[in-house]
């Protein structure tokens, strides 16, 4: 197939298949030259929005596992969790290399000495090529940022910052515990040290319409982040937001609404920003809804089809202004 025909088939430059957005898999294969898998870990952390430092109760959508429902058991050491996860990955992808993902709760919310005691043994494990660290923008003291910068100088490191929405009234409603301005302060601490950041967004939060979700994507686009995760609000049993849903205080997004919104967002994000995910789900036994989110490949295919129908792709309407 010649270049012109290939461009007509898929006009998006950062792709090796039919995807019209910069997928995480495409980035990893370009960076490492082989298949890379993430293994999710629970380092035994808590959160400043749970222990009273910033608030109590946590975000209203957060599960009792601190959004680490697919992470290993905190009853095990992080090294044991990693080894178990690596064994599971090897059944599907033999000899795959691993990024250790500290996922549950706030994974920089501890003294540097404790962070070293958790991160370093995992990095020393065979086949581990880097770390992903999920945290909050208000849990990045200077000494922790310095340690993250040191890690970044000797391994692949990505810090994943939960934002969810740029709208402060939404943040207040979901008990997020920090504002957009506070998020920016933490984000720039990392960027000033050349630490790659992945920003998490949630579509379908209570009180938000499609225009607000698109506004979030436009503001995030101005930051030119290394990576973005987009996923929908999934309501889990036992969470405060489950009680709001039961009381009829907000609706769940339909699949069609979600697909349209994600495509709108992809169109305004920078083309060189890696899109780590465009959907998400919860554990089947805990998920109240949307139940269509369990059909992950249906969601992905509908996004692909909609971008093709529009003749569109990531960054089509991105503006650097």
Structure description:
With 321 residues, the chain is α/β, with parallel strands linked by helices. The protein contains eleven helices and nine strands. It has a seven-stranded parallel β-sheet with strand order 1-2-3-4-5-6-8, with helices on both faces. Strands 7-9 form a two-stranded antiparallel ribbon. Strand 2, helix 4 (112-123) and strand 3 (128-135) form a beta-alpha-beta unit. Helix 8 (210-222) runs parallel beside helix 10 and helix 10 packs across helix 11. The longest helix has 15 residues, at 78-92. The mean pLDDT is 92.
Largest sheet: 7 strands, parallel
Helix content: 25-40%
Enumerate how many helices there are, as a single number.
11
Structural Rg: 19 Å
Number of strands: 9
Q: Beta-strand percentage?
A: 15-25%
Oligomer: single chain
Note the main attributes of this structure.
alpha/beta; 9 strands; 321 residues; 11 helices; seven-stranded parallel beta sheet
Structure in a nutshell:
This protein is α/β, with parallel strands linked by helices. The protein contains 11 helices and 9 strands. The strands form 2 sheets. Strands 1-2-3-4-5-6-8 form a 7-stranded parallel β-sheet, sandwiched between helices.
């Amino acid at each position: 197939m010649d270049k012109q025909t290939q461009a007509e088939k898929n006009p998006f430059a950062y792709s090796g298949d039919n995807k019209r957005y910069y997928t995480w898999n495409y980035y990893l294969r370009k960076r490492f030259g082989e298949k890379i898998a993430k293994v999710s870990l629970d380092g035994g952390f808590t959160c400043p929005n749970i222990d009273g430092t910033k608030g109590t109760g946590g975000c209203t959508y957060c599960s009792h596992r601190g959004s680490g429902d697919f992470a290993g058991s905190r009853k095990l050491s992080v090294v044991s969790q990693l080894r178990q996860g690596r064994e599971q990955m090897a059944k599907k992808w033999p000899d795959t290399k691993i990024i250790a993902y500290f996922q549950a709760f706030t994974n920089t919310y501890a003294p540097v000495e404790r962070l070293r005691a958790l991160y370093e043994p995992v990095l020393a494990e065979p086949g581990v090529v880097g770390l992903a660290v999920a945290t909050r923008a208000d849990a990045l003291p200077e000494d922790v940022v310095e340690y993250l910068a040191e890690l970044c100088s000797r391994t692949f490191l990505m810090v994943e910052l939960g934002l969810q929405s740029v709208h402060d009234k939404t943040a207040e409603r979901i008990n997020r515990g920090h504002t957009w301005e506070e998020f920016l302060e933490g984000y720039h601490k990392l960027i000033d040290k050349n630490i790659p950041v992945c920003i998490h967004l949630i579509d379908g939060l209570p009180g938000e319409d499609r225009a607000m979700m698109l506004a979030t994507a436009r503001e995030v686009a101005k930051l030119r982040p290394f990576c973005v995760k987009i996923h929908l609000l999934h309501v889990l049993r036992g969470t405060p937001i489950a009680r709001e849903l039961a009381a009829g205080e907000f609706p769940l997004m339909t699949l069609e609404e979600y697909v349209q919104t994600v495509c709108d967002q992809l169109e305004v994000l920078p083309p060189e920003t890696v899109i780590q995910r465009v959907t998400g789900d919860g554990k089947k036994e805990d998920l109240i809804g949307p139940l269509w989110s369990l059909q992950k490949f249906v969601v992905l295919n509908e996004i692909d089809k909609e971008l093709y129908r529009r003749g569109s792709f990531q960054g089509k309407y991105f503006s650097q202004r």
